[in-house]
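Onboarding guide, step 5: your first structure request.
Type a short instruction followed by the sequence, for example:

Predict the 3D structure of this protein.
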Amino acid sequence: MSLPGQAVPSLMEEFLEGIWKQNPVFVMVLGMCPTLAVTVSAMNAVSMGLATAFVLVTSCLLISLVRNIVPSEVRIATYILIIATFVTVVDYAIQAISLAMYDALGAFIQLIVVNCIILGRAEAHAAKNPPMKATINAVGMGIGFTIGLFALGSVREIFGAGKLFGISLFGPDFQPWVVMVLPPGGFFVLGGWLLLFNWLKSRTPPAPAGVKVSEGHAHV
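The system replies with C-alpha cells like these:
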C-alpha cells in the first residue's frame, strides 16, 4: 500500500522489498525466536525458512482473495485460522518427509502461526492489495527470511562444527568454536550480520533530488 504522493511500486519492487529494502531479519528484525533457535546448522535454517515462506505465500494469497468478504470485526481471527491451516499442512509434511528434521525444528514449526512476519504481512499488505501483488510481495519476504536464516545457520555451522550442510570443510584437526552452536553464538552472529547489512545500506548512494522513492509500505 503506497502512501499519498508516492509512486506505486512495481511488481519487481514488491518482490525485492523483502529481500533487501525491508528484509525481515536484517532490517525489520522480526521472527527472532526461530532465527536464533534453529540456526545451529544451514539445513535447519533453510528448512525453517522454506516452511515459513510456504505459509507466508499461501496465507497471503488466500487472505488477499477473501479480503473484501471478511468482516473487519473478525479479520484477525480469520487470518489466524488461515495461517494455522497452512502451518498444519507444513507440520505434517515435514513429519512425513523427515522425522529427524521435525525433531530438530521442534515446536518452532507450530509457532509459525504467531510469527509476526506472517501476521504483519497479512494485516499490512495482503488485506489491502490484490492477489498478484500480495503474492509477489510475500514471495520476496519469504526468500528474504530464508536468506537471513541461511546467513546465520551457515556461519554457525561452519565455525561451530567445521561443516556446511553436514559436509566437513576443514578436516579432523579442526577445533570447533563450541560457542557458535550455543545460544550466545546466535546473538554474536546476528549482531555481525546486522553490522554488515547496515554498513552496506549506508554505502548505497541516495536517490537523486526530485526522484520519488517508493518505500512507504505499512509494516507491523
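Each response can be followed by summary notes, for example: The helical segments are 11-21, 32-37, 42-66, 75-97, 99-105, 116-124, 131-161, 183-202.
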